[in-house]
Design brief:
The longest helix has 18 residues. The N terminus is likely disordered. The strands form three sheets. This protein has a six-stranded mixed β-sheet with strand order 7-6-3-4-5-11, covered by helices on one side. Strands 8-9-2-1-10 form a five-stranded antiparallel β-sheet, with helices on both faces. It has eleven helices and 13 strands. The N and C termini lie far apart (74 Å). The protein folds into two domains: 236 residues, Hsp33 domain; 51 residues, Alpha-Beta Complex (CBS domain Like), CATH 3.90.1280.10. 34% of the residues lie in helices and 28% in strands. The relative contact order is 0.16. The structure holds zinc ion (ZN). Zinc ion binds next to loops.
Length: 312
């Protein structure tokens, strides 16, 4: 049966599966993010290495978004490394819609000494990882840690350990067809022991990391998420807690871009009108282009003018 499995799965939906294991002592999230990584690659015209890098970060952001409760809650992850990627930002909401952006999406790098896409070289081996949780409170919560490798999964595991004192196992893998750059499979796994979990269970979970590192390859070869989860965590008495569909979705709109232009201020808008007589604004998350004529900009300038009863 295995030789006839469909290796390229365009018709399958992405899945984010949540489980608990070891009598509720460990929670596990599994994401098949193949479609959302494909969508990001297509919209943002990502190079192979950028597809792998942003794809990994998008899946982690989706996993974190699954914990959001409020309708307007957002979580953003920002990687600012010293590599050629520039900065990478991903944002997710409680509906599991994620979007991402990278400063230099077209940079391509030679594969590393292990023959893999050089995500660490692309992101950089040092820098900062920050996580901004906007939960509708007065101030967003910002967690910060160092980039320790640039391979992203390790950096997020370090974030949980260093910033939150929580020893999490993180795997993020994107398989890219080397000839065409097409995304074959994208998988993420997040396993976190809950307070009171015995050290012995934590050690046994951590010992699964080598096996889990094969997951994107195995999904690509036709194994299902359930089979993969069972193979790694079945011995911990896995209980399924729910499943949702993550999506790549940008929520930009002309109104939003207008508001951003107005917020640049009357002086800036005036200069754009005088020098360029119009503007093209490209959304960094979906590459959509919004065109503004000189007339459009004059209307925005009107809105940006300080009102008469206000001081200059
Ligand atoms: Zn957009």
């Amino acid at each position: 049966m295995k030789d006839n499995v469909l290796r390229y799965r365009p018709e399958q939906k992405d899945r984010l599966i949540q489980c608990v294991a070891a009598n509720g002592m460990v929670r596990i999230a599994f994401i098949d993010g193949t479609n959302l990584v494909r969508e990001a690659k297509k919209l943002l015209k990502l190079s192979r290495v950028a597809t792998a890098a942003l794809g990994r970060q998008l899946m982690m952001t989706a996993i974190m978004s699954a914990d959001l409760k409020g309708e307007h809650d957002l979580v953003s992850t920002i990687l600012k490394g010293d590599g050629p990627a520039g900065s990478m930002i991903c944002t997710g909401n409680s509906r599991l819609e994620v979007k991402g952006s990278v400063t230099n999406p077209d940079v391509e790098l030679p594969v590393n000494e292990r023959g893999k896409l050089d995500v660490g070289g692309f992101v950089g081996h040092s820098g900062k990882l920050s996580v901004v949780s906007d939960l509708g409170l007065k101030e967003p919560y910002v967690g910060l840690s160092n980039i320790v490798s640039g391979e992203i999964a390790i950096d997020f595991a370090n974030y949980y350990a260093a910033s939150l004192q929580r020893p999490a196992l993180v795997y993020l893998g994107v398989r890219v067809r080397s000839e065409t750059g097409d995304v074959r499979a994208a998988v993420g796994v997040f396993a976190e022991p809950l307070p009171g979990c015995p050290d012995e269970v934590i050690d046994r979970i951590q010992a699964k990391s080598e096996q889990i590192a094969q997951f994107s390859e195995r999904l690509d070869a036709g194994e299902t998420p359930e089979e993969l989860l069972e193979s790694a965590f079945g011995e911990f008495n896995l209980v399924y807690a729910g499943e949702r569909e993550p999506l790549y979705r940008c929520d930009c709109s002309r109104e939003r871009i207008e508001r951003a232009l107005i917020s640049t201020g009357a002086g800036e808008l005036h200069d754009i009108i005088e020098e360029d007589h119009g503007a093209e604004v490209t959304c960094r998350f979906c590459d959509k282009i919004y065109t503004f004529t000189e007339e459009d900009l004059r209307a925005l300038l009107e809105a940006a003018q300080p009102r008469e009863d206000e001081d200059e």
